Amino acid sequence: MYEVRVEAEFAAAHFLTDYHGKCERLHGHNYRVLAHARGDELDSGGMLVDFGVLKKALRDACGELDHGNLNDLPVFGGNPSAERIARHIFMRVRELAPDAPLRAVDVYETPTSRARYIGDDRD
Predict the structure, then answer these.
(1) Domains of the chain, CATH where assigned
(2) What phi, psi does 97 have (nearest 5°)?
(3) Residue 121: band (very low, low, confident or very high) from pLDDT cuts 50, 70, 90
């Protein structure tokens, strides 16, 4: 099994409407995002996926969120949790790089707090 990973960052604001605590107030994060591709087969060039293709898709997906208020985006249903952000980015990267064997997306809100979305055949 082979796995490759690329990384991107974006900054955005959000608040959680169904949460009681400091995160219910508007605040921001410098998000760090990792996209993992995984598979058994390499192409004729000996690669699982071109790093450049996967990195561009991830950067484009993150760029759509950069310097905005995530609560303004209907896709998050008013609660842009790290888990929902990870799933959204996973789905966008899959759309932008459909041939990449995308397996998971990690979203770090802080260096020590991360959410991961792992895709399966239903995605």
Answers:
(1) 2-101 (3.30.479.10)
(2) -135, 70
(3) low
Q: Is 24 a catalytic residue?
A: no
In the set 9, 24, 27, 67, the catalytic residue is: 67
Catalytically annotated residue among 23, 24, 27, 83: 23
Question: Per DSSP, what are the bridge partners of residue 14?
Answer: 27
Q: Is 62 a catalytic residue?
A: no
Catalytic member of 14, 29, 62, 109: 109
pLDDT by residue (tens digit) across 64-95?
Answer: 999 999 999 999 998 999 999 999 999 999 99
Is 67 known to be catalytic?
Answer: yes
Cβ burial 20-45 (10 Å sphere, 16+ → b, else e)? eeeeeeeeebebbbbbbbbbeeeeee
